[in-house]
């Protein structure tokens, strides 16, 4: 008789930005299920929150992870801080636990350097998932260039990876 498979932890990581949000869904430590961008133009927080609700409905995550927009190291705008708070409330209403990670913790965990750049972080993520994200890695930007919107995907995947690093109860599995 075969034993039932242990249910994998499904992480929904969300990286809000000025253009909308990047997201990543991971199942267990090593399986990247889905990733992408949700662009918004008008009424950004309401539309972003609606996108998050849709992602929750589609993927039924076990946990949601976000950057801690209220940490000392965060330089997030008040709009993004309000959006993160709204996402936390939505997750609470759905009964889904939320993990907030400071930007410096994510960079320390993946780069061993709290001052690492977003491009270094993206390269680290692309190296971890070369088949899925290798071709999506934007070129390193010059100081006068705007950040590529695809960086939000890499931020989200980095957040998802870090859930397993910082929470030993999650790392051990259910």
Give a description of the structure.
It is a single chain. The chain has one domain: Ribonuclease H-like superfamily/Ribonuclease H (Nucleotidyltransferase, domain 5). The N terminus and C terminus are likely disordered. Helix 1 runs parallel beside helix 2 and helix 4 packs across helix 6. It is globular, with a radius of gyration of 16 Å. It is of the alpha/beta class and 174 residues long. Helix content is 44%, strand content 20%. The chain has a five-stranded mixed beta sheet, sandwiched between helices.
Give a quick precis of the structure.
With 174 residues, this protein is of the alpha/beta class. It contains 7 helices and 5 strands, in the order E-E-E-H-E-H-E-H-H-H-H-H.
The name of the CATH architecture is: 2-Layer Sandwich
According to CATH, the fold-level topology is Nucleotidyltransferase, domain 5
**Percent in strands:** 15-25%
Q: Judging from the principal axes of the Cα atoms, what is the shape? A: globular
Count the E strands: 5
Which CATH top level class fits?
Alpha Beta
Number of domains: 1
Biggest sheet: strand arrangement: 3-2-1-4-5
Radius of gyration: 16 Å
Query: Runs with pLDDT <50, length 5+?
Result: 1-6, 169-174
SSE pattern, N- to C-terminal: EEEHEHEHHHHH
Helix content: 40-55%
| CATH level-four homologous superfamily name | Ribonuclease H-like superfamily/Ribonuclease H
Please give the count of helices: 7
Helix- and strand-based class?
alpha/beta
Compute the average pLDDT: 86
Biggest sheet details: 5 strands, mixed
The rounded distance between the terminal residues' Cα atoms is 22 Å
């Amino acid at each position: 008789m075969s034993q039932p498979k242990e249910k994998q932890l499904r992480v929904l990581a969300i990286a809000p930005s000025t253009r909308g949000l990047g997201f990543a869904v991971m199942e267990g430590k090593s399986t990247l299920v889905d990733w992408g961008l949700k662009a918004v133009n008008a009424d950004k927080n309401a539309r972003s929150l609606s996108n998050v609700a849709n992602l929750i409905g589609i993927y039924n995550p076990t946990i949601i992870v976000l950057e801690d927009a209220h940490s000392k190291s965060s330089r997030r705008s008040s709009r993004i801080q309000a959006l993160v708070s709204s996402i936390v409330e939505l997750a609470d209403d759905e009964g889904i636990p939320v993990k907030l990670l400071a930007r410096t913790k994510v960079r320390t965990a993946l780069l061993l350097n709290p001052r690492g750049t977003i491009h270094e972080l993206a390269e680290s993520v692309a190296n971890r998932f070369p088949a899925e994200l290798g071709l999506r890695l934007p070129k390193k930007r010059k100081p006068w260039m705007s950040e590529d919107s695809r960086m939000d995907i890499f931020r989200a995947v980095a957040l998802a990876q870090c859930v397993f690093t910082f929470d030993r109860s999650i790392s051990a599995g259910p």
